[in-house]
């Protein structure tokens, strides 16, 4: 018994320590570990270089000003930039002060000792900026218009200060109902974090009232750091291209939405030459963590809300979207596998072409030798063809599917918001009921001031209940409109992409015909 | 196996090998039981050496191997290129895939499963076709060879209506065969070391050795390429199945596209890869001829040395002389027939390459054109909606 108690004490001691580790530091630790693991797959020296360069040449300055990378170490501004109050709280186990940093710098390239800060600071100033060109053409007589946005290649401005994307807006007609846009054609520079900032602003304004806000492209820490450090290889080029087209699609979807287009934030994003820094978009910032925590809380809540669905339409639609989600994910996986296999096919074809060329060389019958060399050439061209087709597979089909998977998540989110609105309404109704009962009880007691207070509260609550009901009806109406618009857009989108994809397949096949028809006479010429 | 018998009946026999009406051989039927394939060898002949003008016998793969090995071991045929033995029927790949399909059945829709099953059955059929063809070609090469067609064992193979297993290799003989393979690698050393007096053979040797390694490489790469192509075709099956459930209009085209892609892959396989594979084996057979000749040359040189030694010692001179004469004769005979064989071999090879390359190119064009019409139809359909 005694020994048990002793061990119990010991246990209690260690759990006490554990309990001291509060929620935030635990999450921070986990995210650090996952980041580190990802970076470990990398070149450790380069990583160290980033940290080193960052600490001694930070470029964490306002987004619109680009050339501020060469001013001396501003380690204080580094931390002012990022409101790290959360981390300040969490620093019982992990401290943020200088001795730790010095330790990091002197210990060489061993990310293992990294406290939480460095990864954050790496991300902070280094967002990719995108040139986006917007072309607005208005159709006659009306609200419907065609906006064309072109996102051009990113421009790397200064070391570590990040790349800027150019945004070019064009408006052909003048004096239109699109008076929201001030100029005909304009071009601005934007960073990736600006895009994320725009999305988070729109999400906070519109999601909870039922508008389907298109989700922003995802962050990729490994890809980003590779580009920033200047690793000029195949994968980083592909990454840049992938991001460029993702940003283009994102903006196009956003401006196609009639309500979002009129939003002042969107206008500011598209027009103003300078944009206030979007701070809350870093992956490891306090805001980011808050978002993660909120997401987790939402997931739990969702399971506990039991809504009496009076409207069959909603129930049906929700089920539909669930199914659509599953199917799209499956399709996306298949298409990704297709891309992978086609790339493999291209590699194998190239290998075969080389081998056939060697065979042709060692063949002593001249005509056959020539034919074999020709075969090798044809196969080489075909390999290139496969490569191009794989790219088409990817950029047209696979990315579209990825976008839609994320969009459906946004749609589901909107449905969830409706449930939350309903919950709020129900809650205030229940509260009202309770207050009425309490008031009824108070009627029999002799407390006139308390009675008055109760009556005031009831009046307030009645207002709230009415507001709740209105909100719920509003969000339901909005969702109906949004969903039908979404469906229309989806069908149009898919159709146009699939047509483009099929056309690319046709082109490939026609090229194949050309190559083989050119080869045939060579084969026939063998005597 | 309805498809297989249909294919067997409608196939056109390869003209170049079976144009001698005195001895026509084909394999009209084949049965697959578990691991074993039973071929029906059908012969039509005007030769008096056979008891009947037309007859069929059931044969297994092992019987073919027995025939091949017997021919190789016959001293008289040392100067000939013995056609390469047909490879063992290999159903491993489709069987494995079938197994995997069975395991993954739960995760697929019924339609997807059926399509994959169809695809696998087609693959199975393709392997079957391949093995029948290869066995047939082996027999037809023998029947079209002036000397080999008259071989007694060959006649027994075609005619003997009982089971051949009594004549087949027992374990001891198999061991002997194993040993022979090791000797062969020693031969490679001999053949590269021996000094060649004849220009023709010197050239052939260099050429064949080099060509063999190149063609082996090409065969491997071609196989890899066709396998990748098959993977792409399989992906289209999954995609079409999912699109079907999404009930988009475009699902049907993917259904057909996968079929075409799959067929391209299997046609490519049959033409290009098989061509390369066959000639790789054939070149090995030609190399074997060169080995045998090199060995004969080595024997001749040994016998010369032995004769000189005997003359020195003045002992057993007549035997040594006779031995030397024999060796010389053998060597000359080998050289003469070897030259003939190698020349005709080259001609055969060029013709076969030409035929297959043309057919392959024509098939590619046909499939691509089909694809274009198919795809164009779908695009028009989608645009008109």
TrEMBL record, chain A:
GO terms for biological process: early endosome to Golgi transport; protein transport. One of its GO terms (molecular function) is phosphatidylinositol binding. InterPro entries: AH/BAR_dom_sf, PX_dom, PX_dom_sf, Vps5_C. It is a peripheral membrane protein. The keyword tRNA processing does not apply. Involved in several stages of intracellular trafficking. Interacts with membranes containing phosphatidylinositol 3-phosphate (PtdIns(3P)) or phosphatidylinositol 3,5-bisphosphate (PtdIns(3,5)P2). Acts in part as component of the retromer membrane-deforming SNX-BAR subcomplex. The SNX-BAR retromer mediates retrograde transport of cargo proteins from endosomes to the trans-Golgi network (TGN) and is involved in endosome-to-plasma membrane transport for cargo protein recycling. Belongs to the sorting nexin family. This is Sorting nexin-2. It comes from Myripristis murdjan (pinecone soldierfish). The lineage of its organism: Eukaryota, Metazoa, Chordata, Craniata, Vertebrata.
UniProtKB/TrEMBL annotation, chain B:
One of its GO terms (cellular component) is endosome. Keywords: Coiled coil, Protein transport, Transport. GO terms for biological process: pinocytosis; protein transport; retrograde transport, endosome to Golgi. InterPro entries: AH/BAR_dom_sf, PX_dom, PX_dom_sf, SNX5/SNX6/SNX32, Vps5_C. Residues 103-130 form a coiled coil. GO terms for molecular function: dynactin binding; phosphatidylinositol binding. Residues 1-164 form the PX domain. Pfam families: PX, Vps5. Gene3D superfamilies: Arfaptin homology (AH) domain/BAR domain, Phox-like domain. Belongs to the sorting nexin family. PANTHER family: SORTING NEXIN FAMILY MEMBER, SORTING NEXIN-5. This is Sorting nexin 5. The lineage of its organism: Eukaryota, Metazoa, Chordata, Craniata, Vertebrata.
């Amino acid at each position: 018994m005694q020994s048990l108690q002793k061990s119990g004490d010991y246990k209690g001691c260690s759990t006490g320590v554990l309990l001291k580790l509060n929620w935030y530091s635990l999450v921070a630790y986990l995210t650090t570990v996952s980041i580190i693991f990802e970076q470990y797959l990398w070149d450790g020296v380069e990583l160290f270089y980033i940290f080193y360069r960052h600490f001694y040449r930070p470029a964490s300055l306002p987004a619109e000003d680009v050339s501020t990378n060469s001013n001396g170490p501003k380690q204080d501004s580094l931390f002012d930039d990022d409101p790290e109050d959360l981390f300040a709280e969490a620093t019982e186990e992990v401290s943020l002060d200088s001795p730790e940093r010095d330790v990091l710098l002197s210990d060489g390239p061993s990310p293992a000792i990294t406290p939480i800060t460095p990864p954050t600071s790496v991300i902070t100033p280094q967002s990719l900026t995108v040139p986006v060109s917007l072309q607005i053409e208005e159709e006659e007589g009306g609200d419907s218009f065609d906006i064309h946005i072109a996102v051009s290649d990113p421009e790397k401005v200064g070391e570590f200060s990040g790349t800027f994307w150019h945004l070019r807006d064009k408006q052909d007609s003048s004096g239109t109902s699109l008076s929201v846009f001030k100029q005909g054609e304009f071009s601005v520079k934007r960073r990736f974090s600006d895009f994320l900032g725009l999305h988070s602003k729109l999400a906070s304004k519109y999601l909870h009232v039922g508008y389907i806000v298109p989700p922003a492209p995802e962050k990729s820490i490994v890809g980003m750091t590779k580009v920033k450090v200047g690793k000029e290889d195949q994968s980083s080029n592909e990454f840049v291209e992938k991001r460029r087209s993702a940003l283009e699609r994102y903006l196009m979807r956003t401006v196609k939405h009639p309500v979002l287009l009129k939003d002042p934030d969107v206008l500011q994003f598209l027009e103003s030459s300078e944009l206030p820094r979007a701070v809350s978009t870093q992956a490891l910032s306090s805001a980011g963590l808050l978002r993660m925590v909120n997401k987790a809380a939402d997931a739990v809540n969702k399971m506990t809300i039991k809504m009496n669905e009076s409207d069959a339409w909603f129930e049906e639609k929700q089920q539909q979207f669930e199914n659509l989600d599953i199917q799209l994910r499956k399709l996306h996986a298949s298409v990704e596998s297709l891309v992978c296999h086609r790339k493999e096919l291209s590699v194998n074809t190239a290998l075969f072409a080389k081998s056939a060329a060697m065979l042709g060389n060692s063949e002593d019958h001249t005509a056959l030798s020539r034919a074999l060399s020709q075969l090798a050439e044809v196969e080489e061209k075909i390999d290139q063809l496969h490569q191009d087709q794989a790219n088409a597979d990817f950029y047209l089909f696979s990315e579209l599917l990825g976008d839609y998977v994320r969009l459906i998540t946004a749609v589901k989110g909107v449905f969830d918001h409706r449930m939350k609105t309903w919950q709020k309404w129900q809650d205030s109704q229940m509260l009202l009921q309770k207050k009425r009962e309490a008031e009824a009880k108070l009627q029999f007691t002799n407390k006139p001031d308390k009675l008055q207070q109760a009556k005031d509260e009831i009046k307030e609550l009645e207002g709230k209940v009415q507001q709740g009901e209105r909100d719920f009806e509003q969000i339901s109406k909005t969702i109906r409109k949004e969903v039908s618009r979404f469906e229309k857009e989806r069908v149009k989108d898919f159709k146009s992409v699939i047509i483009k994809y099929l056309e690319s397949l046709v082109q490939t096949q026609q090229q194949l015909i050309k190559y083989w028809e050119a080869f045939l006479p060579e084969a026939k010429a063998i005597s | 196996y309805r498809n297989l018998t249909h294919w067997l009946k409608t196939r056109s026999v390869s003209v170049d090998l079976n144009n001698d009406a005195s001895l026509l051989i084909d394999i009209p039927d084949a049965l697959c039981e578990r691991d074993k394939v039973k071929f029906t060898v059908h012969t039509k002949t005007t030769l008096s050496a056979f008891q009947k003008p037309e007859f069929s016998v059931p044969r297994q793969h092992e019987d073919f191997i027995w025939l091949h090995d017997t021919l190789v071991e016959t001293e008289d045929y040392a100067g000939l290129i013995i056609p390469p033995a047909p490879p063992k029927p290999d159903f491993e790949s489709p069987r494995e895939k079938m197994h995997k399909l069975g395991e993954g059945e739960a995760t697929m829709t019924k339609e997807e499963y059926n399509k994959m099953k169809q695809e696998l059955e087609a693959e199975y059929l393709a392997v079957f076709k391949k093995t029948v063809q290869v066995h047939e070609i082996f027999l037809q090469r023998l029947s079209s060879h002036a000397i080999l067609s008259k071989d007694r064992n060959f006649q027994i193979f075609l005619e003997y209506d009982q089971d051949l297993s009594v004549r087949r290799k027992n374990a001891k003989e198999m061991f002997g065969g194993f040993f022979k393979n090791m000797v062969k690698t020693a031969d490679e050393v001999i053949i590269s070391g021996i000094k060649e007096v004849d220009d023709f053979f010197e050239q052939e040797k260099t050429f064949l050795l080099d060509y063999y390694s190149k063609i082996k490489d090409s065969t491997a790469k071609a196989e890899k390429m066709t396998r990748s192509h098959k993977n792409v075709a399989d992906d289209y099956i999954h995609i079409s199945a999912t699109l079907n459930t999404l009930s988009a209009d475009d699902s049907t085209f993917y259904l057909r596209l996968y079929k075409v892609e799959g067929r391209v892959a299997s046609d490519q396989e049959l033409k290009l890869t098989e061509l390369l594979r066959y000639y790789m084996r054939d070149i090995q057979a030609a190399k074997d001829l060169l080995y045998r000749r090199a060995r004969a040359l080595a024997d001749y040189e040994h016998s010369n040395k032995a004769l000189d030694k005997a003359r020195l010692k003045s002992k057993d001179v007549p035997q040594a002389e006779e031995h030397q004469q024999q060796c010389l004769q053998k060597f000359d005979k080998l050289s003469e027939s070897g030259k003939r064989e190698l020349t005709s071999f080259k001609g055969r090879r060029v013709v076969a390459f030409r035929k297959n390359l043309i057919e392959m190119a024509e098939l590619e064009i046909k499939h691509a054109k089909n694809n274009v019409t198919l795809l164009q139809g779908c695009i028009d359909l989608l645009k008109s909606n």
